[in-house]
């Protein structure tokens, strides 16, 4: 839980099969992460996305952090 919006670019990936999701995920993400890239819904993934969809997660991180990884 956060008590104020995160004031940084944030990559938001959401597992489409995550059973703990509440309603209005996109609206809540917009409030919590005003500089969000996403949310992107990942099919076939739930809460343990790095295990369930590692290729998608790794590609997303490489793309999002590409400027940092090139150093």
Low-confidence stretches: none
Give the number of helices: 4
Largest sheet, in brief, is: 2 strands, parallel
Helical residues, percent: 25-40%
Strand content: 15-25%
Radius of gyration: 13 Å
**Major sheet: arrangement of strands:** 1-2
Q: What overall geometry do the principal axes of the alpha carbons give? A: flat
Coarse structural class: alpha+beta
Describe this structure as you would to a colleague:
The structure is a single chain. With 71 residues, the chain is an alpha+beta fold. It is 38% helix and 18% strand. The chain contains 4 helices and 2 strands. The chain is flat, with a radius of gyration of 13 Å.
List keywords for this structure.
71 residues, alpha+beta
Write a brief caption for the model:
This protein has 71 residues and is α+β, with helices and mostly antiparallel strands. Helices cover 38% and strands 18% of the residues.
Question: Topology of this protein?
Answer:
Blueprint: E1 10-15, H1 25-32, E2 36-42, H2 49-52, H3 54-64, H4 66-69
Parallel strand pairs: 1-2
């Amino acid at each position: 839980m956060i008590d104020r919006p995160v004031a940084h670019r944030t990559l938001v990936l959401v597992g489409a099969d995550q059973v703990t999701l509440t309603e209005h995920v996109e609206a809540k993400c917009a409030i919590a992460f005003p500089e969000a890239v996403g949310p992107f819904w990942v099919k076939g993934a739930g809460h343990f996305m790095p295990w369930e969809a590692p290729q998608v997660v790794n590609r997303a991180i490489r793309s999002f952090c590409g400027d940092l990884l090139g150093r």
